[in-house]
């Protein structure tokens, strides 16, 4: 009797083990391949009060007195987006949205914007938002939706700072992988 119990216990254990490995292999299976991949550059020229002809973003709310890292400062932008890292390359779209600084003891930001495409290649929008953890070299933002050519899309936009020239100009490299395309 005891032997039988031990045997069935062992069999049960085997079943459990194989079930788990099925689950594990399903998990690695589900790691999707992107259905669309875009590599774009984002250029931000912050208005300094004199360069209205060139500036593409402006401080819309001043920083607070909390800490020394611009906590609360809000910047609204309508930035050109290009295929290569040249500011003067013809834009393939625009990034329209805002970021604000949100860390008391270091620089850190939060982004929300829409990539607006209106070219022969692409028409539509991609909506992107998330924490810009500035201490990290590479940051992942969520692609939360889209319209037109990017109807109902979702994915990940990985951003890296390509160049940073003080408060005046910075450029981000955006590596956008979409996992839902219709
Ligand atoms: C605008 O940008 C161009 C190209 O970088 C530069 O040559 C020009 O001096 C800038 N104009 C102003 C007003 O900043
Ligand atoms: C913005 O805030 C900073 C720091 O509190 C202050 O020095 C500056 O005068 C403020 N600027 C404006 C336009 O209120
Ligand atoms: C998109 O481009 C077309 C053709 O150049 C233009 O007529 C239209 O106004 C543009 N739409 C937007 C939202 O920029």
TrEMBL record:
Signal peptide: 1-24
Domain of life of the source: Eukaryota
Keywords, in A-Z order: Apoplast, Secreted, Signal
GO cellular component: a single term: apoplast
Chief place of localization: secreted
UniProt KW Signal keyword: yes
Localization of this protein: Secreted, Extracellular space, Apoplast
InterPro entries with a match to the protein in the record: Allene_oxi_cyc_Dirigent, Dirigent
A GO BP annotation: phenylpropanoid biosynthetic process
Family: Belongs to the plant dirigent protein family.
Function: Dirigent proteins impart stereoselectivity on the phenoxy radical-coupling reaction, yielding optically active lignans from two molecules of coniferyl alcohol in the biosynthesis of lignans, flavonolignans, and alkaloids and thus plays a central role in plant secondary metabolism.
Subunit structure: Homodimer.
Protein name per the record: Dirigent protein
UniProt lineage: Eukaryota, Viridiplantae, Streptophyta, Embryophyta, Tracheophyta
């Amino acid at each position: 009797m005891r032997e039988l119990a031990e045997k069935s216990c062992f069999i049960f254990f085997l079943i459990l083990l194989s079930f788990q490995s099925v689950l594990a292999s399903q998990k690695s299976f589900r790691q999707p391949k992107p259905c669309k991949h875009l590599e774009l550059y984002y250029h931000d020229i912050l208005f300094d009060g004199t360069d209205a002809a060139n500036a593409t973003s402006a401080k819309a709310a001043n920083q607070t007195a909390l800490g020394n890292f611009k906590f609360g400062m809000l910047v609204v932008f309508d930035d050109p987006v290009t295929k290569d890292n040249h500011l003067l390359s013809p834009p393939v779209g625009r990034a329209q949205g805002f970021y604000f600084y949100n860390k008391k003891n270091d620089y850190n930001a939060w982004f929300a914007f829409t990539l607006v495409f209106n070219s022969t290649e692409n028409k539509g929008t991609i909506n992107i938002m998330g924490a810009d953890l500035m201490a990290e070299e590479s940051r992942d933002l969520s692609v939360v939706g889209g319209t037109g050519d990017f109807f109902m899309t979702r994915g990940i936009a990985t951003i890296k700072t390509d160049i940073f020239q003080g408060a005046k100009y910075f450029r981000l490299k955006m590596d956008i992988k979409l996992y839902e395309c219709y």
